[in-house]
Amino acid sequence: MQAWICNEFAGPEQLAWQTQPTPEPGKGEVRVAIKAASLNFPDLLIVQGKYQMKPALPFVPGAEFAGVVEAVGEGVKHLAVGTHVAGFAGTGGFGTHALAPAAVLMPLPPVFSFEDAAAFLCTYGTTYHALMDRAALKAGETVLVLGAAGGVGTAAIQIAKAAGARVIAAASTDEKCALCRELGADETINYTTTNLRDALKTLTDGKGPDVVYDPVGGDMTEQAFRSIAWRGRLLVVGFANGQIPNLPLNLALLKGASIVGVFWGEFARREPQANAACLMQLAAWYMEGKIKPVIEHKLPMSQLKEGFALMGSRQVRGKVVLVND
Question: Domain segments of the chain: what residues?
């Protein structure tokens, strides 16, 4: 097998594409022949040594992938050789093969493409957990999505619409705003040319959004939270801006608002049955055509560094997916 090896926490530039022995699965493990893997922002943080977890060196990065079960270890009952699966294992996806615990693999319906599946679990799992579980989103409520043209942002638009919410999508260019409207956003805000708070006041008749979905962080978080509705919920999804905001907590008091943390990976680990129910609903919506990953770039697996460069440019709409021939 071949894989991208991280030998030190020094960023994507030091990753090396190397030949490795093809591993055999142990108890409870499965070997997957990887067909596609997607890039997520935590993949960048992990190879930089900036993520919540630091894998033991050396390791193969790549949290999210899809492929075909090639071998199963002792005790694996629900998967068989030849089964198509999607996986979110934290690491291991950027190669031709991966070992993964069987528990983190989701069997795929026949209509699910490998590319879509590789861009599905993390972004849609995170977003469903955020909006439906943590925020208890109700039909008719208004959701503000920050960074709305990115991977989790495009998922948030689709899931919020599937749940019957009104969606205001905020993005950094007119082109990204156009994509958001194509995905179903009711209103869009280009926050590089328009004052976010003024636009929200106009679009919500002064009420503000009920839910703010925030994978961006930085200064945008406080602006959005100052505009939130009474009993609103701010979903802390991530910090793609690179800055963790310092929020004045009196804002939460004055608005009767909640600041809600979203950590889907830990939710999936601690509450596997609840997570499985979420994924079942997402798969049903995919089959019904209500949700579908936005994939702007498909690259060969050998071009991982180019994929990281695209993601780092912050110009990608949706996801970057790497494929093996």
Answer: 2-120+293-323, 123-265
